[in-house]
Specification:
Four Helix Bundle (Hemerythrin (Met), subunit A), mainly alpha
């Protein structure tokens, strides 16, 4: 897909995610949505991290393309953390809702680190991507340690 069209498509997808919370008919729908978003986020981050750490061959174009997708999918899960979704088939700890400011701060930190990773990916420099990916991993781990059941 040509770059301008890809960006428009990604913006359209991101725009659809914003009103998602109002579209959930049942709490189970929101839980499925956020799980799907987390899966997509982890999958795309994993691809970048594997190349950054040398587990698979480095491909700067693939990293940049994957980062463009990560830019959108990394925003998706948070629309699914709505009231009433603390019960059911979820690994989300109740502290998400009782410590909402701390949870949101952790989510913001992860998003900020992902933005840095995307910028690093655009440079094509493996060392910069590796450093940025490490920071993303630590931000994700911090939130998972505090707000995700194993």
């Amino acid at each position: 897909m040509h770059r301008p069209f890809r960006h428009l498509a990604l913006l359209a997808i991101a725009g659809l995610a914003l009103p998602a919370a109002a579209q959930f008919a049942k709490p189970e729908d929101a839980i499925k949505y956020r799980k799907s978003g987390m899966f997509l986020q982890a999958t795309h981050f994993g691809r970048i991290n594997a190349m950054a750490t040398g587990k698979v061959p480095w491909d700067a174009k693939a990293v940049a393309d994957t980062a463009a997708v990560l830019e959108v999918v990394s925003r998706l899960p948070y629309a699914g953390f709505v009231e009433g979704t603390d019960k059911g088939e979820t690994k989300a700890k109740p502290e998400i809702w009782t410590e909402r400011d701390k949870f949101n701060a952790g989510a913001t930190k992860a998003q900020d680190e992902i933005v840095k990773l995307i910028a690093a990916a655009r440079t094509g420099n493996q060392d910069q991507v590796k450093t940025a990916a490490g920071a993303v991993g630590q931000a994700c781990k911090g939130c998972h340690d505090n707000y995700r059941r194993e």
